[in-house]
Amino acid sequence: MTWHIKHFNELTTIELYRILQERTNIFVVEQNCPYPEVDGKDLNCYHLYRLENEQITAYARLLPAGIAYTQASIGRVIVPATHRGKGYAGELFARAINFIQQELGETEIKIQAQEYLCPFYGSYGFEAISESYLEDGIPHVDMLLNQRLEPLGVS
């Protein structure tokens, strides 16, 4: 089991295929939400993922400032159903924040959170900056982190 972070241009075709497959499985199929999963933003993003037995067990798309918002962002956060409850989401999110703050030099991170996950994101210092709204039929809240967190000792 290993963690990887790669810019889009560094991904192999197999890695890209696995990422898009898992994102589609969760956001389109599991959540029964037909929408354009491949939205053109991936090309300028970093992709953070955990592999175990050649399967993606956690993934997040890291968007530099100016791609989706004026701030950096974290999106497409997933843990496949077979790997939930193992702490991968927490480690994934901590690694994502760490990369954006340490490697990209950003302190503000904006996310579009599914409403039921606000307490999870809030535990990392994110605060709601919008009322709840429907995005593709799912309640969401915009949240912002505008403080530097202590760097993680992760490799």
From TrEMBL:
Any single Pfam family the record assigns to this protein: Acetyltransf_10
The N-acetyltransferase domain, residue ranges: 6-150
UniProt-listed InterPro entries: Acyl_CoA_acyltransferase, GNAT_dom
Domain of life assignment: Bacteria
SUPFAM superfamilies (alphabetical): Acyl-CoA N-acyltransferases (Nat)
Record's protein name: ElaA protein
Organism for this UniProt entry: Paenibacillus hunanensis
